[in-house]
Amino acid sequence: MIIVLRKDVTPEQKQETRKFLENHGFKVREIVGEQDTIFGAVGRLTIDTREVEILPGVDRVIPISKPYKLASRELKKEDSIINIGPVRVGGGRIAVVAGPCAVESLEQMRETAEKVREAGAVMLRGGAFKPRTSPYSFQGLEEEGLKILKQVGEEFEMPVVSEIVGTEYAELMKDYVDVLQVGARNMQNFELLKKLGKIGKAVVLKRGLSATIEEWLMAAEYLMAHGNDNVILCERGIRTFETYTRNTLDISAIPVVRKLSHLPILVDPSHGTGLRGKVSPMALAAIAAGADGLMVEVHPHPDQALSDGPQSLYPDQFERLMRDIEAIAPVLEKELERTPRKRRTGLSDYRAASGNEVLSGPASSDRTAPEKTGLIAFQGMRGAYSETAVHRFFGEEYQAVPCEKFEDVFKQVLQGQVDYGTVPIENSLAGTVHEVLDLLLQYPDVIVVGEQKIRIIHSLMAVPGAEIQGLKRVYSHPQGLAQCSRFFEEHPSIERVPFFDTAGAVAHVAEQKDLSLGAIAGYEASRVYDVEILKEGIENNPRNYTRFFIIARTETAPIHSPNRAALVFSTRDKPGALFDVLKVLADNGLNMKKLESRPIQGRPWNYMFLVAVDMPESQDILDGTIVEIKKTAGDVRVLGLYYSHGD
Question: What CATH number is associated with residue 432?
Answer without folding.
Answer: 3.40.190.10
